[in-house]
Amino acid sequence: MHAMQWAVDSGFHISAIMQANRIGLPRRLIASLKKSMTCPKKCKHEHGSSKCKRWCWVVLHKGQWELELWSDGSELVILMSDCTSATQMMPLSRSVGRQTRLPICPGGVAQYNIFGRGPTDTGDQHRRRLSLSVRRRLRQGPKGALFDAEIGFVNGRIVAERLRAASVTVWDFADEYCAEVLKAVSMRQTSPAPAQEQPSTRAQLDSHRPIDYSELHRRKKRAGAPAGKRAKRGRECCEAACGACPPGAAKRPSLFCAGCKREREGCNGWYHFGCYWKRHRSVYNA
After folding, report:
1. What is the helix (H) or strand (E) element at residue 1, kind and residue range?
2. Global pTM exceeds 0.70
3. Which of 72, 129, 245, 250 is 20 to 30 Å from 4 at the Cα level?
4. What is d(CA 100, CA 170) in angstroms, rounded to the nearest whole number?
5. With helix as H, strand as E and coil as C, how does 138-192 read?
6. Across 11-25, 97-111, 134-148, which has the greatest mean pLDDT?
7. Element (H, E) at 269
8. Is the dihedral of CA 31, 33, 36, 42 positive or negative?
C-alpha cells in the first residue's frame, strides 16, 4: 500500500492484485467475506441460480481507492485501484466442467485479466517451452544467467510480436538476437597452455600457483605469527636432475608447486624462480 500510494502521489494511476493479509486492508472483513462468498467445491448450480456464490462480488471504497473482491470459483480475487470502477461490469470467460460460461465481473478485475494476466500467462507458457532453467532452482552464477536469459528471450518475443503484428516464436527471436547482438560483443579469449600441461579444472589451475615459503616466513615473522615450513637442506630444484638449472643459481630452490609434485613422477615440487617459468607459463588476454 505504501508503494501504491507513492505511485499515486507521483502522478501515476495504478491497479494491483492484493493478498488477503496485506497490511493496510481490512483483513478481518476480508477473511469473513471469503467464507461467506465461497461456493461448495464442485457445485452444480445452474447458470443464474440465486444460491450460487461462484462469481459473487463486493466493492469497498475509501477516499480515492476502490477495493474489488470477486469470487472466482473457490478463489477470492482482490484488486485495489484508484482508476477503475465496478460501475462498469464486464463479462469474463470461465470454464465449469465441460461448459464455458460468461459471468459478470467488476471492471477492474476484468481489465486486469485482459491487460495484466494475459501477457503473464503468455510468458509462462513460452518459458515452459524454452525450458532453459528447468531443474535449476539456485539462481546464482551460470544457473542465474540461464534464468535471466530465459525471461529476456520470452519477453523479447512478446514485444516483437506486438510491434511486428506477425507470429514470432521464441526460437526465432533467440536466433535473431544471436545474429544481431552477440556478433557485436567483444569476447575475452585465452590462449591454451601446451596439451600436456593444460589444466582441465579450476582446482588444477590453482594447484600450480607458485608458493614462496621464504617470503611467507618473513611476513609471518614481521606479524609475530608462528613461522611456516621452508625449503630444507637437501632439497634441490626439479630441473637440477636434467642439468637445466642456470649457472650460478642458488643452492636451495625458493618456489614450491603443489601441482607438479602431485602430477609429475619423481618431482618434489621445488623450483628456482627461473626454472619454474621454464616449466610453466602465464598468459593474459584482454
Report:
1. none
2. no
3. 72
4. 30
5. CCCHHHHHHHHHHHHHHHHHHHHHHHHCCCCCHHHHHHHHHHHCHHHCCCCCCCC
6. 11-25
7. none
8. negative
Q: Are 270 and 253 in contact (CB under 8 A)?
A: yes
Instruction: Let me know: does 94 contact 100? Beta carbons within 8 Å.
Output: yes
Q: What is the dihedral of CA 21, 23, 29, 35, to 10 degrees?
A: -10
Highest mean pLDDT among 118-122, 179-183, 231-235, 248-252: 179-183
Cell numbers that stand for 67 in this block: 477495493
CA angle (173 as vertex; 169, 174 as ends), nearest 5: 115
Which residues have CB under 8 Å from 23's CB, separation 6+?
1
Domain range annotation of the chain: 2-114, 131-184, 203-279
The letter for the amino acid at 108 is G
Task: Report residue 40: phi and psi, to 5°.
Answer: -55, 150
- Whether residue 231 contacts residue 270, with contact meaning beta carbons closer than 8 Å, is answered with yes
Output the average pLDDT for the chain. Answer: 76
Q: Which DSSP string corresponds to 204-268?
A: HHHHT--EEHHHHHHHHHHHTPPP---PPTT---TTGGGT-SPTT--SS--EE-HHHHHHSTT--
What SS3 state is found at 279?
helix
Residues 98, 111 contacting (CB under 8 angstroms): no
76-87 per-residue burial string, b: 16 or more CB within 10 A, e: under 16: bbbbbbbebebe
| 21 alpha-carbon distance from chain centroid | 27
